[in-house]
Amino acid sequence: MTQSGLKVIKPGVLTLVQDLGRFAYQHIGLSPGGAADEHAFLWANRLLSNRPNSPALEICFGGLQLEAFAKTNIAITGAEMNATLNERPIKNWQTHTLNVGDKLKFAHATSGIRSYLAIQDGFQLQPSFGSVATVMREKMGGLDGDGSPLKAGDFLPCTEHKPKLTTHVPPLFIPDYQQPLILSVIPSEQTDQVDAAELEKLYHWTYRISPQSDRMGIRLEGEPIRPKLNGIISEGIAYGTIQLPPDGQPIILLKDRQTMGGYPKLGTLFVLDAFLLSQQQAHTEVRFTQMSLEEAQEKLRYFYRFFGA
């Protein structure tokens, strides 16, 4: 094999090629997709001085094994998966140098559920509708453009680079995925369709993440919330939307969400909290608090300006 890149020896539980997503196509029914935890994804690319949108790997739950067919540099961020390079433990949230023949392995997640592997200059892949983001439901994006997760024998092309000095994320910016999670909600124009006593349940009770959750959305289990209406005219769905289906158990919609929905909405989860939520395992308890739109906008502007995204 003469091409430069990484070969997949074992794909792990679920490993997907991701970037920041596919934008301006929801009107034709395409989900944006993209990295579930943009905080970890953007840090991985920043450590390598990559463009913010450079394609990287999202490793869910672990088990990925790769062999290097290139001299290059990588960065690992996100969930702790006790990665090893040639059987030697390597640190998370920093860069590492690969040489031809090196074996990179990820064990199973012990904190968080999604790890990100970026490579210098990104993986060299052909985009579909402006993005390589893998959306399995829509059979779009990924290595071959058909929405498939990585499988054994796949080859991820990259460019070669000389070793670079190790860079790491300052401890201040490394999240603790095991800390109790309090999620901020921005009220929406439909919040008043829920009686105050019913809405108060969201902020008073503790909810648990259902095992029936995925990249499309997080289903919650807890005290049912009953809206005034069981349905509305279908409309566009934003990232972080908190839908209220007839059973009263909230659903928080994430990156692979549908583009339209007809359930009433309790509000919208603050984007940075949605990234943290995507790192939580089933049965994790979560609580909610309110945030103003102005505060959310200010924090989000600072976040994306920092990463140049």
Structure description:
The protein is of the alpha+beta class. It folds into 2 domains: 5-173, no CATH class; 181-307, Beta Barrel (Cyclophilin), CATH 2.40.100.10. Helices cover 13% and strands 29% of the residues. A 7-stranded mixed beta barrel has the order 12-19-16-17-14-13-20. A 6-stranded antiparallel beta sheet has the order 7-6-9-4-1-11, with no helix packed on it. Strands 2-3-10-5-8 form a 5-stranded antiparallel beta sheet. The two termini are 35 Å apart. The model has no long low-confidence stretch (mean pLDDT 94).
Q: Give the uncertain stretches in residue-range form.
A: none
Identify the overall geometry: elongated
Find the count of extended strands (DSSP E, 2+ residues).
20
Average pLDDT figure: 94
Helix and strand pattern:
EEHEEEEEEEEEEHEEEEEEEHEH
Q: What is the percentage of strand-forming residues?
A: 25-35%
The helix content, as a percent range, equals 10-25%
Structural class: alpha+beta
Distance between the termini: 35 Å
Rg calculated over all Cα atoms: 20 Å
Number of domains: 2
Total helical elements: 4
In spatial order, strands of the major sheet run 12-19-16-17-14-13-20
> How is the main sheet built?
7 strands, mixed, barrel
